[in-house]
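Complex record, two chains
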Amino acid sequence: AQKVTQAQTEISVVEKEDVTLDCVYETRDTTYYLFWYKQPPSGELVFLIRRNSFDEQNEISGRYSWNFQKSTSSFNFTITASQVVDSAVYFCALSEARNTGTASKLTFGTGTRLQVTL
Amino acid sequence: KAGVTQTPRYLIKTRGQQVTLSCSPISGHRSVSWYQQTPGQGLQFLFEYFSETQRNKGNFPGRFSGRQFSNSRSEMNVSTLELGDSALYLCASSPGGGGLGNNEQFFGPGTRLTVL
């Protein structure tokens, strides 16, 4: 069975601080995908990144960066110079890789609520 | 390109009633998945449809059902509503079409269902 653990329930930082959100996963699949989604108060899940299991390169997109380490089954997300607009709940998710043309079921972590204050 | 749309956005029902929620995927997307989000259970997978066929189903009772139409629009139905069905129901749209790269899912704004 797949499992995603986000141990940090809530994090509060002051604007411009860097913050790292942790994600640890469990799966028996050799090929899988990892995702991060952002959920602002409006409720919509906003896609941030997808990473497949055979690509361990870290990725940077503006103030966002992701550190994928297969050896520790972790896929951590760092926001550099946080801003108030980053306040949201962030979810890490895992899915199997299916070659059937259909979407795979996403297994979500419990989310980390990030509060950025001035 | 328009995003995923869900209707209605808010719904209030009473126990025992039934409800139908609608989801229109991104144009060209053929796969639609449904998720339930509650404070207690978090985000849980309900089911996924591709080309009008249910391809995968989560661990929910038979009161939860869905379908997909030829234009890829999907509906989910919950019969005999219970208080515990109060939740945010999210629909996700995915391209489909074959290959390992087609499972990127884009979510709609959700339908918030309150059961009284």
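Note: Chain B touches chain A at residues 30-31, 33, 35, 42-45, 48, 50, 55-56, 58, 88, 90, 92, 94, 96-100, 102-110, 112 (CB under 8 Å).
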